[in-house]
TrEMBL record:
It comes from Zhenhengia yiwuensis. One of its GO terms (molecular function) is phosphoglycerate dehydrogenase activity. Belongs to the D-isomer specific 2-hydroxyacid dehydrogenase family. This is D-3-phosphoglycerate dehydrogenase. InterPro entries: ACT-like_dom_sf (IPR045865), ACT_dom (IPR002912), D-isomer_2_OHA_DH_cat_dom (IPR006139), D-isomer_DH_CS1 (IPR029752), D-isomer_DH_NAD-bd (IPR006140), NAD(P)-bd_dom_sf (IPR036291). Catalyzes the reversible oxidation of 3-phospho-D-glycerate to 3-phosphonooxypyruvate, the first step of the phosphorylated L-serine biosynthesis pathway. Also catalyzes the reversible oxidation of 2-hydroxyglutarate to 2-oxoglutarate.
Amino acid sequence: MSKIYTLNKISSKGLEGFGQCYEVQESLQDADAILVRSAKMHELELPKSVKAIARAGAGVNNIPIDACTQKGIVVFNTPGANANAVKEMVIAGLLLSSRKIIEGVNWAQTLKGNIAKEVESGKSAFTGPEILGKKLGVVGLGAIGVLVANATQALGMEVIGYDPYLSVDAAWGISRHIRHAHTLEEVLGQADYITIHAPLTSATKEMFNEEAFNKMKKGVRLLNFARDTLVDNQALVKAIEKGTIEKYVTDFPVEGLIGHPQIITIPHLGASTPESEDNCAVMAVKELKGYLEKGTITNSVNFPECEMPWHATFRLTLIHKNIPAMIGKITSIIAEEGINISDMINKSKGEWAYTIIDTDTKVTDIKIKSIEALDDMIKVRVLSK
Ligand SMILES: NC(=O)C1=CN([C@@H]2O[C@H](COP(=O)(O)OP(=O)(O)OC[C@H]3O[C@@H](n4cnc5c(N)ncnc54)[C@H](O)[C@@H]3O)[C@@H](O)[C@H]2O)C=CC1
Ligand SMILES: O=C(O)CCC(=O)C(=O)O
């Protein structure tokens, strides 16, 4: 029985996918794997039993990836599974940033007496421009950015996209009407609206800072449905005071922004739809099962993709450093017992490698210990059918 610790509320449709051989628990004790959404895991002491973590969602900045990698814990996410939910929210955000809908609705709640007359005399305070024909800059053209770019172009916006690491898959999905910016400055200098869809990393932290705001057009509307600290909030408030930024719409309410008349704070609702919660959970559960049961790695952010059909009875999965002679050392230990390897695969990602070895005969515990004792060997698992 494998034990799964859930850190956030995970859709039941996803959890059902685990089936009879799994126990979903609210304790970390002896957990084989963890399922998480946005809960912060940096302070969490992970027991040795943990082999994998699946993020039911896209952003993995809440997970201590480097520490997990060193311990041989495979971290997965669910690329694209919540992208449509965020895209729809961004379209709402664009309209909220432009038309004074929230202000108008709040004002309408206060009306009394001759309401129809009050409405007609007061509504001019809530006028705002249309998005049709305006220029939108999309920063980050991944799963979400591409959907946002295509949808807003279809709504009549002129869209310019920037992504220095654009993937081939993403490029296939981008409408030919979207203009390609070669630098961030190109977007900042001409967009009427800017929407951020890059991940939070040490390289992107506060990429929207005073310097970036100084390059923006006056009166720009900025949307952030990616992560709070992609934006330097102090510089942002100053840019609003200077008139550079007309409105900031963020999915990440933080102190200093809440209550500001030109800032709309949404309580991280981008992915909060039943469809996206189901999609993410179903995908995350599939990834964990594939790894725990067969050693398959799909959509990992810290180890290479790896899958091999399993015909033999026994399987070793090995996480180790990506260095010369490692495979030779492992196979020599197995050969000392006269065991034949029926199939094998080795994949690498940067300085890390992952190997699957199938045998018809069980490798003895003593030999497994010898393999575990190899320098630069991080984790060895023994699976059987
Ligand atoms: N508000 C919410 O509920 C949600 C927020 N998110 C956030 O949105 C981010 C993006 O999500 P996805 O599109 O699914 O991820 P993705 O990984 O498909 O796309 C991210 C894109 O950003 C690009 N990128 C990286 N560095 C960049 C830079 N310096 N400038 C411009 N582009 C850069 C990458 O090349 C990639 O194409 C996530 O990392 C997460 O933080 C994701 C889902 C839900
Ligand atoms: O699980 C959620 O609601 C948050 C989604 C998110 O921020 C992400 O997928 O990066």
